[in-house]
Amino acid sequence: MPPIASLFFEPLDVLVFRDPRPFMAGQHFLARSQFPLPSVFFGALRSALFQAAGVRFNSKDPFRNLTPGDRDLLGDADSHGSLQLAGPLLASCRPAQRIEPLYPWPQDLDVELPQQSESAAKAPTAHFVVPSQRANGLRWNGNSLATLDGSLPKRQGGQKPKKPSKQRYLLTRHGSHAYAQASAAGKATLSLQKNAGEPDMAIPEESVLVKERRTGISMARADNGPDPRSVEDSMLFTVETWRLAQHYGFAVELSLAANSPHLSRLTKLLSAIDGTTVRLGGKGHLARVCVRHNQPLVPVFEDAKQGNTALKSWCLTPSLVDPQHTSLDLTMALGKTLQLGGFNFRGKKRGPRPLVSAMAPGSILFFKAGLDAGEITKKIVDANKKRGVDHGHLRCAGYGVQTLLPYPQKQP
User: How far, in Å, CA of 73 to CA of 212, rounded?
Assistant: First the structure.
């Protein structure tokens, strides 16, 4: 179904989104943050909507008074209801204005380090890589630069790769459409220089968020003595937090499962949480929720299939697609991996979930020529659903969001 609303989460403090590594003061003393997973926002939103529907989590049976309709819409402790999320994306939102999403940098674009003679204010140029068309041409860039069948792909036009820039960028809505047009036309480069009067094509990630490290001391209970708390040796710890610039936060698209009859009820519940605060990104950290209607976030390129082109998938959220699975009909995959973990709090499988590799946001999957958008979308959805259900990272929570773009079958 089309999106019903877009929600903007404006942080009111620094946020912490823990990575899956163990964190024990005195042993593993650094807790890093990673880009928040979709399940963070799925849980925060459902909790806010549950409370608006009358659920009180401090009671013995919090879901007892939930109506059958609200239970079908929101679910309960054992089901996920009818909600469908897409996101999160970094975004900006000023009062009384629309949400402006920022998209993860596509991994088939390589930004070079500017030359010393170039002005620091000059916008960089990004270079497209040449997809492999061989049957065994799958190329996967994991946590290292190792690939499945040799060196990374060459750039279009035969340019010799130069030293890459360490600057990280995010594409704007305007930049995403320029990227799609350049890809469809088979261009070798994409200039990020904006024209007069036009919005930015891309912005540096550091202008949106800054990572801060905070150090503390873990206190241990004292069995005896006048002081009820004491400090033990080697109990220092450091937590990496995220601080976002003013008017920046995270955004998600919200829709309902097909044939769900609860649109009017969901609209009423969304009005109840508009402007309220939810707990997000660590204990005690809050974010303000802003609801916007008729403002879709995920880009759709209607003219994706143009002439003699094949299609590629641009991952906007973590995808559980396995790029080495032959049924996907891939020619190449570019991107990085991340590890998804978690904890099962209910059922027979209660306990830590096994770590599973996923494709990080910004990864690109190149599909063989001859497949249409419907076939590719079905392959991606089926792959995400299967591995998502197996490992607890559900598509309805926002995993596996992608958009399709064209690229030429034959490179110039």
Answer: 39
